[in-house]
Amino acid sequence: MALQVFTAVTGAAWESELVGALDREDHGVTVVRRCVDVAELLAAATTGTGQAALLSAELRRLDGSAVARLHAAGVAVVGLVEPGDTRAADRLRQLGVVRVLPADAEPEAIARALREAVTGVPVAGHDVADPRAALPALGLPPEAGAGPAGGGRVVAVWGPTGAPGRTTVAVGLADEAARLDVPTLLVDADVYGGVVAQVLGLLDESPGVAAAARQAAAGTLDRAALARLAWSVSPQLRVLTGLARADRWPELRPRAVGVVLEEARRLAALTVVDCAFSLEEDEELSFDTAAPRRNGATLTVLESADEVLCVSGADPVALQRTVRALAELRDALPEVEPIVVVNQVRRGPVPGDARQEIATALGRFTGREVRAFLPADRKATDAALATGRTLAEVAPHSALRTGLRALAAELGGVPAPAGRRARRGR
Ligand SMILES: Nc1ncnc2c1ncn2[C@@H]1O[C@H](COP(=O)(O)OP(=O)(O)OP(=O)(O)O)[C@@H](O)[C@H]1O
Ligand SMILES: [Mg+2]
């Protein structure tokens, strides 16, 4: 039986010729409906009368959620772009359309792509030249890592409720990595209200992360666009600011956040993401995949990250929260192997040798080792907060800074700086 196909290729001069050719020749394809817009295509998809859709990049209101809904309805998608329009091809791929062909491709090739899309044959190479090749030189650093897929690493900084110091650790790690000459992007992805801009003394009027997510959803985010949305705080440090207002969380759709991180991997060798604490899913809402979930963005970050740091406080209450948070993480994302960092270590709340006691307790209740202990140093953190500067600037010799620098070297894949010799100014 011929493959039943919907088309939505309005606005293109070649539409009727193509539809005619597909229908006429014996390509094993029957065009069952020619849709004029996205709404009609989505309505057609729900009728169950077609197995694939052929759509053009120019289709108005085409976004990631429309593509996702087509897939959810069991309709495979093939995209068409004006010959040579690599930007449009890139945009379609970002929206989740993996098969993209130039509109002047032979009808036989288009029919084959439709059949392969339905049977799920993996895509080998791209039908249109890699759009990254057309990226204008915008004073961007060379692509991080090897290969066009973007080799930058993503480190998520997460942890339980109770302000264990996620933001302090995320900002410190990003700043130290940048000082060690690792091109770094710090992303504030806290869906309960981000404070990275404030901590760094940036007068931020519009959250960069929301704009990036918006462009990602529209399929227009690329490496250059992401660079434009980020502040350049120092030669090697860019910052994508967060949602200052907690009620704007629906702007961080998980899918879009995933795309932002993919582009981040092309922009920076190291991306450090300051995450919110909660992983809870709203049971009422989660059965409906279309409903936004507040913690979906956090889950996406943790799932896509190369490393997940779990920042813990160092007193008994904070440790108990960490035990619970790690159990939640294991339930939600069993494949993630978090790196435990204990912050705010001090004498007092834990009797005896605090490090030893904490390591033993966490080992017993979570089965995890502590990778790093960071001391409590209120004087240093207060000095940083008071001036909107980083620990390297206000407390360069503090043990807290030294600990963060060593961890940054490890995560950034550079040799650990030895003593003061390696200190760098801005
Ligand atoms: N090692 C430390 N020594 C002293 N104070 C610290 C240390 N780490 C963090 N703090 C302070 O603790 C407070 C909370 O830290 P931070 O904002 O980094 O936590 P958080 O986990 O990001 O919290 P939130 O849940 O609000 O996002 C801040 O005032 C910060 O300066
Ligand atoms: Mg925080």
From TrEMBL:
GO cellular component assignments: cytoplasmic side of plasma membrane; cytosol
Single Gene Ontology MF annotation: ATP binding
Q: Which GO terms describe its biological process?
A: negative regulation of cell division
Concerning InterPro entries, the annotation shows: P-loop_NTPase, ParA/MinD_ATPase
Please give the name of this protein: ATPase involved in chromosome partitioning
